[in-house]
Each structure stands twice: as structure tokens, then as C-alpha cells.
Design brief:
The structure holds 2 protein chains of 2 kinds.
Chain A lengths: L1 H22 L18 E3 L7 E3 L8 E6 L4 H16 L4 E6 L3 H11 L5 E5 L3 H5 L7 E5 L5 E6 L4 H19 L1
Parallel strand pairs in A: 3-4, 4-5
Antiparallel strand pairs in A: 1-2, 3-6, 6-7
Chain B lengths: L1 H12 L15 H12 L17 H15 L4 H12 L14 H27 L8 H4 L2
The chains are: A alpha/beta, B mainly alpha.
């Protein structure tokens, strides 16, 4: 009897283990930065490199940092959603233009529209690495205390915005006041 | 013909020259060795199953550059690994620390060895207890 139950049981266990593995999201890595202060940056602005943009200027209220690049195909996919979110005006969107070339980044914003209050130009990529970026687009939500409270990897959509970001923004805004 | 063959051999020998970051990053061989060891223990976040030493993606190149910069600044191995963990989590380490989340990972080899040894032990003990009834037909006697 056992000689049937044991192999079948082992097989069922392995099958269940592998089946559960199929449905898991292995692409999204948990960010160690959630719950930590947002890394500070001060970089040239994409639209006017003579001027600097720092996320310090936005301290005291929630803001969003969106990592993008003109080389990033998925960023094209999310661009219209970002434009819509910018029009809604719930929080300022700060762009972090990661590992890009200035003319290409500027052309992108002219061609597709600029959803950002400003984009920081990070050609070396060190600021992106400080934020734990591993693949654009990535979108971070920082609360009024300057703490990263959410990170979304992959293109932003209105559905994701309303489900994951808006409730947190309402809470975060309430805490800051 | 011989010359052509010789050229081919030379080209094959020279293949590693096409590897990433061809020039040694450090003049000091000890530092270079340390650099190689560190970048082999850091996982490439975009390709997942490669270390940043082996990966050709730009993020890996940036992380290698950061390792070189930190080494040049006199940072310890511990500080360099911590810099990466602060940004990317334990996932970036090919040798993650033993925590409740990773005990299965670290324990798996021992666990599998124990399970295997137990099963083997049972089988050996049982077979050794079987009466040696029919030496002319050992294949069937086992069942």
C-alpha cells in the first residue's frame, strides 16, 4: 500500500509546489527602500540643464518620482497614463531621466508631452541606482515626511494609479498636515 | 595553410579579450583579484541569473563602475556589499545572509542529504534483511 501512496504523495506535493510557482510574480523585486527616507538628489533639469532640480524642493507634501528614459519602450506605453495623471493634479510628478541623452530626452518631452513638473537628468545613472532602479519605468510614491511608501515597477496605468497610489496619497497627505 | 591555422589559434586564444571590461581595472593584481571576487558575488538585477561580472547590460556596467569607485575610495568589502544591499536588498547578493526567509535556501543541501541518506539507509537495511533464497534469480528475489 505505502509503496503507492508515498510516490503519489511526493508527486502531488511537487506538482502543487511547481503549480504555485507558476503564478508567482518573479519579475518584481521587493524594494528595500520602502519605509525609508527617499534618497536626495540634485541634478540638472532636462528642459533647462542650467537649472537644478532637487527632490528637497518638494518636501512637506507627497510627490511621485517616475524613472524614465527615451530608450525605454515601456515608458512609451505608460506615457499617456502619466499625462492623464498629471492633468488630475493630485500630486506633482518628478521625472528622473535615467541614463539618457539630453537631446533625445528633450525631444521625447516635446513630441509626447511633458507630464512632469520637472525631470532630473541622470546620464551616469547613479541617482537611479540610489533609488534601487533596475528597469525603467519605475514609479515611487513619497509621502509628506519624505518616506518612500510605494513602488510600482512596469508601466503606470490609470487602474494602478487609482488602486495603489490614490488611497496612499490620501493617507500620506493627511499625515503631513 | 599553416599560417592560417596559426592565425586561427591566435584568434581563439585572444577570445577572452572580447570579454567585458577588457583592461584590468586595477594595476595592483591583489586589488584586481578582489574586484573580480566582489563583482562575481553581486547579482545582475536585469538578467537575474548572471553576476554583474558576466553581464553585458548597462546597469551591470554601472554597478561595476560603482564597485571600482568604492574600492578606489578605500571602502571595505563589507561597505561595498552594504551599499548594494541598501539599494537592491539581499537579492543582489549571491550569498545572502541566513535569515528566516533564506533558511530553506541554505538548509536545502543538508536537508536533501539527510532525506537521501534516510531513504538509502532504509532500502539498504531492508534489502540486507531479505533471505538470500534464490541466488540464481537475484532480480526477482528483491521484490
Amino acid at each position: 500500500m505505502w509503496r503507492f501512496i508515498i510516490p503519489i504523495g511526493l508527486f502531488a506535493g511537487l506538482a502543487a509546489f511547481l503549480y504555485l510557482g507558476l503564478g508567482r510574480d518573479k519579475e518584481t523585486l521587493p524594494s528595500p527602500l520602502i519605509g525609508k527616507p527617499a534618497p536626495q538628489f540634485e541634478l540638472p533639469r532636462v528642459d533647462d540643464p542650467a537649472q537644478k532640480i532637487s527632490n528637497r524642493d518638494f518636501a512637506g507634501r507627497p510627490y511621485v518620482v517616475n524613472i524614465w528614459g527615451s530608450w525605454c519602450v515601456e515608458c512609451r506605453h505608460e506615457h499617456q497614463a502619466l499625462m492623464q495623471i498629471a492633468r488630475r493634479g493630485e500630486v506633482p510628478l518628478i521625472g528622473l531621466n535615467w541614463k539618457d541623452e539630453l537631446p533625445l530626452a528633450q525631444q521625447w518631452l516635446q513630441e509626447f508631452g511633458n507630464p512632469y513638473v520637472a525631470s532630473a537628468f541622470d546620464p551616469k545613472g547613479d541617482v537611479g541606482i540610489d533609488w534601487g532602479a533596475y528597469g525603467a519605468p519605475e514609479t515611487f510614491l513619497v509621502d509628506a515626511r519624505g518616506i518612500i511608501i510605494h513602488k510600482h515597477v512596469s508601466p503606470m496605468t490609470i487602474a494602478v494609479w487609482e488602486q495603489d497610489f490614490l488611497p496612499l496619497i490620501k493617507q500620506a497627505g493627511a499625515k503631513g498636515e | 595553410m599553416r599560417a592560417l591555422f596559426a592565425l586561427l589559434v591566435v584568434l581563439v586564444i585572444a577570445l577572452p579579450a572580447f570579454a567585458l571590461d577588457t583592461a584590468p581595472a586595477f594595476d595592483d593584481p591583489a586589488q584586481q583579484e578582489r574586484y573580480q571576487r566582489i563583482i562575481r558575488e553581486l547579482r545582475c538585477l536585469q538578467c537575474r541569473s548572471e553576476s554583474i561580472a558576466d553581464s553585458g547590460v548597462t546597469l551591470a556596467a554601472d554597478l561595476r563602475r560603482q564597485v571600482r569607485e568604492m574600492m578606489a575610495a578605500g571602502k571595505s568589502d563589507q561597505e561595498i556589499f552594504q551599499h548594494m544591499v541598501d539599494r537592491y536588498g539581499d537579492y543582489v547578493l549571491y550569498k545572502p545572509p541566513v535569515t528566516p526567509r533564506t533558511w530553506l535556501l541554505w538548509g536545502a543541501p543538508v536537508l536533501l542529504l539527510v532525506v537521501g541518506a534516510t531513504v538509502a539507509g532504509f532500502v539498504i537495511v531492508r534489502k540486507s534483511k531479505l533471505p538470500d533464497t534464490d541466488p540464481a534469480d537475484p532480480g526477482l528475489g528483491a521484490s
